[in-house]
């Protein structure tokens, strides 16, 4: 079974993307144009596999089309470049709303159950689902310098959730990496919490101070979109993310 899956993926990766898809990627995702040709070609192969294996469903009246699927797939697969990947194996379905949506929340705090509604741009569930706002997908992709990209954010959560509940520590390539990862990301998380508490300006979005899982997702957005600033202000954090993603976005021309 696994041999068949790998052979199928290999065959999909060599199929050229339709020209209309390439034009969609170039138009909607400026970051793509910054990538070396070899990375663009690798990304195109990953997109073919991703679109073959994942299901998209429109919500709130949105009709799914190729533009939506390709734009989301290209950004999700950006996190997979250069790495051994099983293409987000637990994630089966992507739900897409036209814009921000209302999600009902229920949580227990100190034995007290609190319920309410909140406005969401996206969500990542541990068991099979990512939810995205199409307006925010486009907005996040269009500005490659603002550090906000809902697709990168939610699919970073998916990587984090491959080993169980999200806690800011995805499965790393080598066991020897975990000590440095825990030390650096733990210290940087505390630093962001302190900066947020004192109202200090930060490269990382302060939403990352919510919990370690959100810190990793926010750091991922920043790594790809504000790479030079992150490398200058948080060199150890940048290096850990560079070793994990096997990419060096600070070297790209923008």
Outline the secondary-structure elements.
Elements: H1 2-13, H2 19-28, H3 30-34, H4 37-53, E1 55-58, H5 66-78, E2 93-97, E3 101-109, E4 112-120, E5 122-124, E6 129-133, H6 134-142, H7 150-161, H8 178-197, H9 212-225, H10 227-233, H11 235-245
Parallel strand pairs: 1-2, 2-6
Antiparallel strand pairs: 3-4, 5-6
Describe this structure in words.
The chain has helices spanning 2-13, 19-28, 30-34, 37-53, 66-78, 134-142, 150-161, 178-197, 212-225, 227-233, 235-245, and strands at residues 55-58, 93-97, 101-109, 112-120, 122-124, 129-133. A four-stranded mixed β-sheet has the order 1-2-6-5. The protein folds into two domains: 1-162, Glucose-regulated metallo-peptidase M90, N-terminal domain (Cyclin A, domain 1, Orthogonal Bundle); 167-254, 3-Layer(aba) Sandwich (Collagenase (Catalytic Domain)), CATH 3.40.390. It has 254 residues and is α/β, with parallel strands linked by helices.
CATH C-level class of the largest domain is Mainly Alpha
Note the quaternary state here.
Answer: single chain
Order of helices and strands: HHHHEHEEEEEHHHHHH
The tally of helices reads 11
User: How many domains make up the coordinates?
Assistant: 2
CATH architecture of the largest domain: Orthogonal Bundle
Sheet with the most strands, sense and barrel status: 4 strands, mixed
Mean pLDDT: 91
SS-based class:
alpha/beta
- Low-pLDDT segments, ≥5 res: 106-111
CATH topology tier name of the largest domain: Cyclin A, domain 1
Helix content: 40-55%
The CATH superfamily label of the largest domain reads Glucose-regulated metallo-peptidase M90, N-terminal domain
> Strand content of the residues, in percent?
5-15%
